[in-house]
Design a protein that fits this description.
mainly alpha
């Protein structure tokens, strides 16, 4: 999956499933490319609709791990209400930006 999948604002349940899969794929690529740094590969797919908060915390840890390893200034990705379209759109941009920075540093596409 490409990074472009992380830029699409999910529309409904199916959109969240596609986003979740694309996100997990990108995290796998980052962890694999970092190889010898032994970063944990967290289970991020599927996003459990009944427990978004736990997913946000685990997902944040995954981002903290790779941004620290790559020297990228990360942001707090836990402060979002996915039911609010404006918050969702802002979160998607911030989230995708961290993945794009990692991809650029690691030569991923």
């Amino acid at each position: 999956m490409s990074l472009a999948g992380l830029l699409n604002i999910p529309d409904g349940e199916q959109g969240m499933l596609v986003f979740s899969f694309s996100n997990m794929d990108q995290h796998r690529q980052i962890v694999s490319a970092l190889g010898t740094r032994n970063l944990a590969l967290y289970e991020l797919d599927p996003i459990p609709p009944q427990d978004i908060w736990t997913w946000l915390i685990v997902h944040q840890q995954a981002h903290n791990d790779f941004t620290a390893a790559l020297g990228i200034g990360g942001v707090d990705l836990t402060a979002v209400d996915f039911r609010d379209p404006e918050q969702m759109a802002s979160w998607i941009r911030l989230h995708a930006d961290e993945h794009l920075q990692a991809a650029n540093k690691l030569g991923l596409r």
